[in-house]
Amino acid sequence: MKKFRQELPATLPSFGWLAFFVLAPTLLVLAIAFRETDPAGGIGAGWTIRQFGVFGRKSILVLLWRTIWISGLTTAICLSLALPVAWFLAKVRKEWRPRLLLLIIVPFWTNFLIRVFAWNQILHSEGGLARFLRSIHLLGENDSLLFNSGAVVLVSVYTYLPFAILPLYAAAGKFDFSLLDAARDLGATAFRSFWSVFLPGIRKGITTALVIVFVPMLGSYVVPDLVGGTDGQMIGNKIAQRNFADRNLPAASAMSAILTLAVLAPLLFRRRESNTGSSS
Amino acid sequence: MKSSRMPLITTWLVLAFFYLPIGVLILNSFNLSRFGTTWQGFTFAWYERLLQRDDLWTALMNSLQVAAIASIGAMILGTCAAFALHRYRSRLQISHEILITMPLVLPEILMGMSLLLLFVSLGQQLSLVTVTIAHVTFCISYVTLVVQARLQDFDFQIVDAARDLGATRFQAFRKVVLPLLAPGILAGGLLAFTLSVDDFVVTFFVKGPGADTLPVVIYSMIKKSREFPVINALSTLLLLVTFLAVRASQRLTTQKA
């Protein structure tokens, strides 16, 4: 009991703060999703499941599907670029590693919005790149590099790639590369030893990279807003629109509630999996 | 074993990809062209224009003020959390740890949305105060992680030694634990500061009318497609400031070691 008296004052400040400002609001989202819309804006009286009716609408289903494939594609591209980089970083001479890591991190000291904005200029329809592609007929006269889902994927890869590189590098740095030589000596092809020895060896890093890119991508809002145009909108944009343009908080909550469940479900599943894994 | 050149080539291509937009920004901040699409000559005009933008300077002051208060708040709460998580193994700490991880895994838009609903339900006016509260909330977890890493190689026997020599628990904490942990706590605070200055999404949801932070003003400038070159000039300046700050902090840490 004496121990508990010491434990409580150390735990309570952060516990209380986070319970009030993270846990309670998340539950609040789940609750307000079931409230009526107030025509004057805001939260109405009375309870309803009407807000979830939007998920029967085709426009929302299109948006949900796009959110999933854009997030999936971005994650896949990030991982396939980050793997060779992590491999290279792990094998390069020791004194080079900190410098290369710094080179990877430095561009991300700029404000996130400014990085997105830079791409906005590069892909601009009057910009040099678009003009060049038009002159060699790779881009149609009326086509644009900007304001489509391709631009969203490109800029998202740019923003999340370092977050994929770092966990993969951390895992590859601990990998014993002589295992690959052993696999080769035993007759495995280069590809086979990469696939069945290296990849399983850095499995933890891969899972971390997957989660660290895919989960925030599901809630993406700024990138599709600034470079996505109407064809590149994701579910995050719809939440923001219901919020800021229509002030329809219950409708925004219903969509946020679905997103919250989509994000937390795989994490809970992973937790259970790792629990059963450790007990066996 | 013949090693493939593919990883080397990919790494250089990725680095080129990372620096291309930064280069374009810096170049365009000196470009006469209003839309930065072609090079039309060298100018300092956008930097002069930047100096006259009072709204940007007010927003910068707002950002710095919010970040200062939020990082101090997060340093205190995060350090407490790291201590509790490190010293005790109980059911309380398991839920504590889940609470600490939640802000790290929840997408920003959900964090902003849920905090907005909380403030609206409580009838709280949206202002820089609500922004600061939101920033403390997402910064706590990062400070906790940094301080926790520091605690891993902290020898608690020296606390017992201090107590044996007659120090009270408070004295032992203030004179022994705190100075040893200070670099870790400061590093966490620095991280919290940068995260706070950089944040747009959460801020956008919980900000009040009129009280904008720097990213919010930058966003509305981009959104209204106005004064692109001024944003370029601002970005270049910010890049320079961050670069110098990091160089300075690196020099400080290497001198100490």
Descriptive overview:
- The complex is a heterodimer of chains A (280) and B (257).
- Chain A folds into two domains: 21-56 and 245-260, no CATH class; 58-228, Orthogonal Bundle (MetI-like fold).
- Helices cover 72% and strands 3% of the residues of chain A.
- By secondary structure, chain A is mainly α.
- Chain B has helices at 6-28, 45-52, 54-87, 91-105, 108-122, 128-152, 157-164, 169-198, 201-206, 214-223, 228-256.
- The model of chain B has no long low-confidence stretch (mean pLDDT 87).
- Helix content of chain B is 79%, strand content 0%.
- Chain B has a domain at 56-211: MetI-like (MetI-like fold), CATH 1.10.3720.
- Chain B has 257 residues and is mostly helical.
- Chain B has eleven helices and no strands.
List the helices and strands and how they pair.
The complex is a heterodimer of chains A (280) and B (257).
Chain A (H helix, E strand, L loop, with lengths): L1 H31 L2 E3 L5 E5 L10 H34 L5 H9 L6 H11 L5 H8 L13 H26 L3 H8 L4 H12 L1 H16 L3 H7 L6 H10 L4 H31 L1
Helix pairs in contact in A: 1-12, 2-6, 2-9, 4-10, 6-9, 6-10, 7-8, 11-12
Chain B lengths: L5 H23 L16 H8 L1 H34 L3 H15 L2 H15 L5 H25 L4 H8 L4 H30 L2 H6 L7 H10 L4 H29 L1
